[in-house]
Design a protein that fits this description.
This protein is α+β, with helices and mostly antiparallel strands and about 425 residues long. The protein is built from 19 helices and 12 strands. A hairpin with a 2-residue loop joins strand 1 and strand 2. Helix 9 crosses helix 10 and helix 17 crosses helix 19.
């Protein structure tokens, strides 16, 4: 029989759901040394790791469970903001913060609400619809607006994130999107798309993404706007930093919400009493969004590397140790959340870690919350309840808690009796 740690790191596990029983047992141990890593399962210990970059570095070994294949690949990923420590991280983050201020997000809210209504409206006819496919366009539209990508090219970001996040899932890793209506610079970039797909984290793994980034950058130099790409062109950013910022935005800015929204609906359909409560009490929606993020937890883990010998949760950690924090466990820690396996849209003070903690707290957290509230506000406006119209098809990944397909249909009566799923 495989150990609990082996179960948790196996991407095949997640095709049937997150292994919460194994995570509960591991959480009782707290910090576990196994499988070549120090794994961290309790909320308080995860927070300690994330807020102490001088001890637990993002830069030394990167932030992924798997190690980069070559020293050259490690050198390249170290230039990505996600894989930096202060002060480099602080400098790079400062180039992007203008796009995510409350004022900047507020200027987008009306458009986000309109996009959400338009995306959800077809569900009202009662025919089976793939909810995961329908809602995937909301973060793409929003990201294209913030980043300065022409809306007609936004399917590129969908394709790139499939290849990066779906690297453990053969269907997504080798998928190809619809190119209808794309710009000439997008079509030229797509000519460089590799087949088969190599490691997408390596510099040679995403040549079409980098070609498009440079073409879009040149366009923004000539025709600047009030967007992230135009702002980057105004600063003296190294080529590698520019490329990796574009890579990070195109993938991370899209994928977490793309999986978080279907996960939120799974939570509602699995808990019909909470769905009905939310229909009656719309004022509970902001708290419900936080509970969705806790209960589903889109990003399941991140990695750090110990810069020095230390102790964590009473367990010795050696210099150079790989330290992996498990958000799926921390977000159900009994020491923080009463009855943590219960999905409760009225839960107070949902101190989840789905957006991280410390210096790397998600830059787009506020924007993500606005999109979640807009989308589920539109869902609650429907004249009935969404229920499963077939089994969900889950992503094969130990990193993203993802749903590839989520067939649903609208019914007039309450959703009680819907087939349960696993968050």
């Amino acid at each position: 029989m495989p150990s609990d740690v082996e179960v948790v790191v196996d991407p095949d596990t997640y095709t049937t759901g997150v292994p919460h029983r194994a995570l509960t047992r591991l959480r009782e141990e707290g910090v576990v040394r196994a499988g070549g890593a120090v794994s961290v399962f309790r909320h308080a210990d995860v927070r300690t790791v994330l807020r102490t970059p001088e001890v637990f570095s993002s830069w030394l070994g990167g932030t992924q469970l798997r190690d980069p294949a070559t020293p050259q690949d490690l050198d390249y990923v170290r230039r990505m903001m996600l894989n930096t420590d202060p002060p480099d991280h602080t400098r790079l983050r400062g180039l992007l913060t203008k796009a995510f201020t409350p004022r900047a997000v507020a200027a987008l809210e009306a458009r986000i609400a309109r996009w959400a209504r338009d995306l959800v409206a077809p569900l009202a006819d009662g025919e089976p619809v793939d909810f995961a496919h329908v809602v995937a366009d909301l973060p793409l539209l929003t990201l294209a607006e913030v980043f300065g990508v022409p809306h007609r090219d936004r399917a590129l970001m969908f394709d790139w994130s499939n290849r990066v996040i779906g690297y453990q899932d053969e269907e997504l890793a080798n998928s190809a999107g619809d190119t209808t209506g794309m710009s000439d610079m997008a079509l030229r970039a797509l000519e460089l798309r590799p087949d088969p797909q190599p490691d997408p984290r390596a510099r040679g793994g995403m040549p079409d993404l980098y070609a498009y980034a440079h073409a879009l950058g040149e366009l923004k130099r000539r025709e600047p706007g009030d967007d992230v790409m135009s702002n980057l062109m105004r600063h003296d950013v190294a080529v590698e930093e520019f490329e990796t910022l574009f890579w990070l935005f195109s993938v991370a800015g899209n994928e977490t919400l793309r999986n978080g929204i279907p996960g939120g609906l799974v939570a509602l359909m699995d808990h019909p009493d909470q769905y009905e409560h939310l229909k009656r009490d719309r004022a509970a929606l902001p708290r419900a969004v936080e509970e969705m993020l806790r209960w589903w937890t889109p990003v399941m883990h991140f990695r750090r590397t110990a810069t020095t010998a230390t102790r964590l949760g009473g367990v010795p950690v050696a210099q150079g140790d790989k330290v992996v924090v498990w958000f799926t466990s921390a977000n159900r820690d009994e020491r923080v959340f009463a009855d943590p396996d219960r999905f409760d849209v009225t839960r107070d003070r949902v101190e989840h870690l789905s957006f991280g903690h410390g210096p790397h707290f998600c830059l787009g957290a506020h924007l993500a919350r606005v999109q979640l509230r807009a989308l589920f506000s539109s869902v609650l406006d429907l004249p009935g309840f969404l229920v499963p119209a077939g089994p969900a098809d889950r992503l094969r990944s130990n990193f993203q808690n993802g749903v590839k397909r989520l067939p649903v249909r609208l019914v007039a009566a309450g959703p009680r009796g819907a087939a349960p799923g696993r968050g």
